[in-house]
């Protein structure tokens, strides 16, 4: 950041308004005297729109897990796939600029194939219409635009915008990454538009899980192993409705970027966000990334007000103990990030589960694990093997998280050493992490194959679109070591390999360098947008009506009032139904800005509970794909609902998973439970999320049953506590009543009445 855009002004621009924040917190302390606050509560309450309005009259025990808070985040970041819809929505609000600082990051649409030099120009050519749209909208509304090649949203946020004790929203599920720099940062879908219009952001006060860290890692253990271990213990639902807050002496032993890895993958357990208290390593990271002023301001506010750590005696809803000294490498997967197998048990698990014996590729980097520390330790491992004459046995792909990381590891010779060993360095973008991976090696879609990645998510088809690819998540150093044997069971901490001249070779535990000794270099500074771009209202943002990739939005219809009386169950889903099942990524990413076209992927990953088939629905005995049925019913004006099991919509913040059903005339989603972001997204789009009051009632309702509601009229009148009952007419004419629960707040009822949150914002903007 030397030169053109200047450090000093940037630091001033990203330093949170600490004075204002601690004043608000003081007001909260007057309302809740004697209350010992967790760090998460402090930062949340410091961002309340109006503490007295939110908290007066409630006791501390009535807040977590029940009270809706209205908050004012400091900033919003959007990735290119979700930014399209956010901007299309924003454009309908009638404002001429975003009302809080916002940024767009072009990272998801770039395919990983032969390497950055050819992949970036190819992706720019293939996505020109989208990038032009995003860039022109950014210019028009005063949004910072980080173009293709600049890096992955979470890494850029960490390097540039994250500041301890601030609050941000981001339209990507791994947004909480910057909790590793003590930023309260939450992944949202439709809420991004509220924030850009300065409508207070509403969040049900999460409960707080305290993770007490003691000891320090050594040997092969890395921060990745901490979160892999925790994901195994907490499971993919364990963090739902919770913030994970780390505390204890072990915290000080972690690097800032290591803590970011841990927070990044808090998304895998469904946590609202994850947060570390302010540490010396955060200070070092801020200084190394040209934000010493932010570090000084943070240190001051912390010293004077203890703002950046929990109060002594703060109470957590649950405490999880982890001794870092006992952590060992492990693997999570396949197909779910919470299936944790420690390295020492992995070889047995391969046999027991009949997992593939061979590794087919190793991938490191992405937003989760591409820090300088990660890359320095990987190169240490790789060089141990190459110096002994060994070569990688499978393709080895490296994704730097940002231009700053890319340029710094290139300058320091790390890239050359990796490439000399056979690694392919991909663009600074998501690539294989989000299914944008063009694999040249021939793997069958019938036969399982195993890949090892240091990414964060491993749902079926996530990386290469192949449902037979099993992704085992592990640390970068374990990936780097294991690629020197094609045997999946190879344990680099114990096993011996044979060098070409027949000598035994054994890895020694890797070393690492926390931060670049000569500082970070910015690389290509043309990627860096100006700090506070003025809106340029004369900029034309064009959407070609014939485009297959962009489509102007039409507002959804308002709710006509009364009860719903003629719904039909479109599909009853069995088992896991993540946002990847509801709105697949990969090749569908290119339709993110075209609602009608992307509707063709709605629920194509869902398993039909009656038949076990994937993406098959029935209409009077006629079978068809799920989107086909939804389009058919939509054209007949037939409203419908989906029935599903637990944690429906887990995974990402993908707003399309709510937008698409709504566009196709879905009105209710009935489940055993929801993932938080998805449930909020549904409410924002005017869909009513309901859960079974008795889980066993899932068995009483089937596809094509007719449904009417009892209780919505009362809900519209503000009777939030009253239940809603579904009256289900079975196909044999019998009638079943299913009592349901909901979590609609007063404001969310207004979204429902208006047809969507956006309709409401537009109405308010007109007044
Ligand atoms: Fe998300 Fe992976 Fe990109 S987690 S931001 S898709 S690198």
TrEMBL record:
Cofactor(s) listed in the protein's UniProt record: [4Fe-4S] cluster
Any one Gene Ontology MF annotation carried by this entry is:
aconitate hydratase activity
GO BP? mitochondrial translation; tricarboxylic acid cycle
Q: Where does the UniProt annotation locate this protein? A: Mitochondrion
Asked whether the keyword Heme is assigned, the reply is no
Specify whether Transit peptide is a keyword of the entry: yes
Q: Which domain of life is it from?
A: Eukaryota
One of the record's GO cellular component terms: ribosome
Q: What is the E.C. number?
A: 4.2.1.-
Which residue ranges does the record assign to the Aconitase A/isopropylmalate dehydratase small subunit swivel domain?
569-695
What protein name is recorded for this chain? Aconitate hydratase, mitochondrial
The record lists the organism as Schizosaccharomyces octosporus (strain yFS286)
């Amino acid at each position: 950041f030397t030169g053109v855009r200047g450090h000093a002004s940037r630091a001033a621009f990203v330093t949170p308004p600490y004075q204002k924040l601690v004043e608000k917190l003081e007001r909260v302390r007057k309302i809740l005297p004697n209350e010992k606050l967790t760090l998460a509560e402090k930062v949340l309450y410091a961002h309340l729109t109006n503490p007295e309005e939110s908290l007066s009259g409630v006791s501390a025990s009535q807040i977590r897990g029940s009270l809706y808070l209205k908050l004012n985040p400091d900033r919003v970041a959007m990735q290119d796939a979700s930014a399209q819809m956010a901007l299309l929505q924003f454009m309908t609000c009638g404002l001429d600029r975003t009302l809080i600082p916002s940024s767009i990051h072009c990272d998801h649409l770039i395919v990983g194939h032969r390497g950055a030099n050819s992949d970036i120009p190819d992706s720019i050519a293939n996505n020109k219409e989208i990038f032009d749209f995003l860039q022109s909208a950014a210019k028009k509304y005063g949004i910072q635009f980080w173009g293709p090649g600049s890096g992955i949203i979470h890494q850029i946020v960490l390097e540039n915008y994250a500041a301890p004790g601030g609050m941000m929203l981001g339209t990507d599920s791994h947004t909480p990454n910057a909790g590793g720099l003590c930023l309260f940062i939450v992944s949202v879908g439709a809420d991004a538009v509220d924030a850009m219009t300065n409508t207070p952001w509403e969040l049900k006060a999460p409960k707080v899980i305290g993770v007490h860290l003691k000891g320090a890692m050594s040997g092969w253990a890395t921060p990745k192993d901490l979160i892999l271990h925790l994901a195994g213990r907490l499971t993919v639902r364990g963090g739902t409705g919770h913030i994970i807050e780390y505390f204890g002496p072990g915290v000080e032993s972690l690097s800032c970027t290591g803590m970011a890895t841990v927070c990044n993958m808090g998304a895998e357990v469904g946590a609202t966000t994850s947060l570390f208290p302010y540490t010396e390593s955060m200070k070092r990271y801020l200084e190394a990334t040209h934000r010493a002023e932010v570090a000084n301001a943070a240190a001051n506010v912390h010293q004077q007000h203890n703002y950046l750590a929990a109060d002594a005696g703060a109470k957590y809803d649950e405490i999880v103990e982890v001794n870092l000294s006992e952590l060992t490498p492990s693997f999570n997967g396949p197909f779910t990030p919470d299936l944790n197998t420690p390295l020492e048990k992995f070889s047995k698990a391969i046999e027991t589960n009949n997992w593939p014996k061979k590794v087919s590729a190793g991938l490191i980097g992405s937003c989760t694990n591409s820090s300088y520390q990660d890359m320095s330790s990987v190169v240490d491992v790789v060089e141990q093997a190459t110096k002994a004459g060994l070569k990688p046995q499978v393709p080895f792909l490296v994704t730097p998280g940002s231009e700053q990381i890319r340029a710094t590891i290139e300058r320091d010779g790390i890239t050359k050493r990796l490439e000399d060993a056979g690694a392919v360095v991909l663009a600074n973008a998501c690539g294989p992490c989000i299914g944008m991976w063009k694999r040249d090696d021939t793997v069958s879609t019938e036969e399982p194959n195993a890949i090892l990645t240091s990414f964060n998510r491993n749902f079926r088809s996530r990386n290469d679109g192949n449902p037979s690819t099993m992704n085992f998540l592990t640390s970068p150093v374990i990936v780097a070591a294991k690629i020197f044997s094609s045997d999946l069971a190879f344990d680099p901490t114990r096993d011996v390999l044979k060098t070409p001249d027949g000598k035994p070779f054994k890895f020694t535990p890797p070393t690492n360098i926390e931060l670049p000794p000569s500082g970070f270099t910015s690389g290509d500074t043309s990627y860096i947008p100006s700090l506070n771009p003025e809106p340029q209202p004369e900029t034309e943002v064009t959407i070609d009506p014939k485009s297959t990739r962009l489509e102007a939005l039409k507002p959804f219809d308002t709710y006509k009032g009364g009860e719903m009386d003629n719904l039909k169950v479109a599909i009853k889903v069995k088992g896991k139904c993540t946002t990847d099942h509801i709105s697949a990524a990969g090749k569908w990413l290119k339709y993110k800005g075209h609602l009608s076209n992307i509707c063709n992927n709605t629920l194509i990953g869902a398993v039909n509970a009656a038949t076990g088939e994937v993406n098959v629905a029935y209409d009077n005995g006629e079978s068809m794909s799920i989107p086909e049925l939804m389009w058919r019913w939509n054209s007949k004006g037939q409203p419908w609902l989906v029935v599903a099991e637990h944690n429906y919509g887990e995974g990402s913040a993908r707003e399309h998973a709510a937008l698409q059903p709504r566009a196709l005339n879905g009105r209710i989603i009935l489940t055993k439970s929801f993932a938080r972001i998805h449930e909020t997204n549904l409410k924002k789009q005017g869909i009513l999320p309901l859960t079974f009051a008795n889980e066993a009632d899932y068995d009483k309702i089937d596809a094509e049953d007719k449904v009417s509601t009892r209780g919505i009229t009362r809900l519209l009148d503000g009777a939030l506590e009253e239940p809603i009952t579904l009256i289900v007419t079975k196909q044999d004419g019998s009638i079943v009543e299913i009592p349901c629960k909901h979590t609609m707040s007063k404001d969310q009822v207004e979204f429902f009445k208006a047809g969507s949150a956006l309709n409401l914002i537009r109405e308010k903007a007109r007044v």
